[in-house]
Amino acid sequence: MDKDMLVKVGTYLFAIPFLVFGVMHLIDAQSLAFLVPGFIPGGVFWVYLTGLAFIAATVSIFVGKKVKLAMQLLALMLLIFVLTIHIPAVMDDMNAASNLLKDLSLAGGALLLGSMYGDEE
What we know:
Layout: H1 3-27, H2 29-32, H3 44-63, H4 67-92, H5 97-115
């Protein structure tokens, strides 16, 4: 496989889970509301917003529009999750570190993918 094809396949493989996560957030928001830290008002609203943001990032990737901005915003959101959800969880249970590392690596991947796109999209 040539480099361009690998980049395209890798990009889609990166995007597809966010589409699934987004749909899951919209379908089952009530059961995910416990993930929203108690000090943040709004509860289930943030679950729906997160789901929509995941879907929007995926759409941006698939249509090739505003990918750089979408990936920067996705990375920011994932880093906020690391700070507000995962670090406090790790303080109570070291087994929660896998989610922290997952979101940290996905944020890095989003920044890397976004850096491949210009500002003119």
